[in-house]
Amino acid sequence: MRRHSLSVIVITKNEADRIEPCLQSVVDIADEIIVLDSGSTDNTVEICQRYTDNVTITDWPGFGKQKQRALDKATGDWVLSIDADEALDETMKSALIAMLEQEQIEHTAYRLPWGVTLYGKTLKYGRSARSVLRLFKREGARFTLDEVHETVVPAPGSTGVMKGLLLHYTHRDYGHGLDKAAKYAWLGSQKYHRKGKKSHGLVLALLRGMWTFFHIYILRRGFLDGSVGFIVAMTYAQVNFNKYVGLWLLEQEKNA
C-alpha cells in the first residue's frame, strides 16, 4: 500500500518525437502529472493530454522559473521533476514505488543516477557517472531561478540515491547536439554575467575547456565508453570554452 502521493512535473516545447516514452515511464506511478508547455508548434500538447488533463500553455521565463511554476501546481507529498528527453528504467520505477510504500522515508530528497543515452549507446562513465537531484519532498522545496542549469533546493534533511537509471536521451542527432550545446553555452554566459562572475580572460577559457575534457574523459573514465565517450567529452569541453568566451565578450561590451 502506498503511503505517500507523487506528483510528476514536466516542462515541454516541441518534444512530440520523444515526450511519450517519458510519460509512459511515469504514468503508472504518478498520482498526478503536471505539464507546462511554452508554445509547442508540433503535437506535443496533444500527446501530453493523452496522459494528463493538467497541461498548461504558458510563456517561457527560463528553466528555473518554469520549473518553479510547475512545482507550485503540485499537490503530492513527493515530486519527481523529469525532463521530456528522460525516462525511468524499470529498476528505478520499482525502487520509487517501494519508497512511496514506506511508512517513514529516511531522506527528504533523492539523487537519480543518470544513464546518458545517445547515438545508440547508454553510457556508463564520463558524463553518465553522476546523479541528479530530481525526487524530493514537496513541502519546503524550491527551484533556483537560473536561466539554465537550475537546481532543486530541497527541504532540510539528508539526500539518498535511488536504484536504477534515469535514462537521458540528450540528442536527437549530432546536429541537434550542436545546436543544444551552443544554446546552453550562451545561456550560461548570460547567467554568469548577471551574477557578476568574471571570465578572467580567453586563456583561462581555453584552460577550462581542456580541464572539462580531462575531467570527463580521464577522471570520470569516459574513455571506457569508446568513441561516443570521446565525442561527449569533446562536446562538453567546447560548451565550457564557449560559455567563458561569451562571458568575456559580454564583459567587453559592458566596459566599452
Automatic annotation (TrEMBL):
The chain crosses the membrane at residues 201-218, 230-250. GO terms for molecular function: transferase activity. CDD domains: Beta4Glucosyltransferase. Keywords: Membrane, Transferase, Transmembrane, Transmembrane helix. The keyword Transmembrane helix applies. Residues 7-105 form the Glycosyltransferase 2-like domain. Belongs to the glycosyltransferase 2 family. WaaE/KdtX subfamily. This is Glycosyl transferase. It comes from Photobacterium ganghwense. The lineage of its organism: Bacteria, Pseudomonadati, Pseudomonadota, Gammaproteobacteria, Vibrionales.
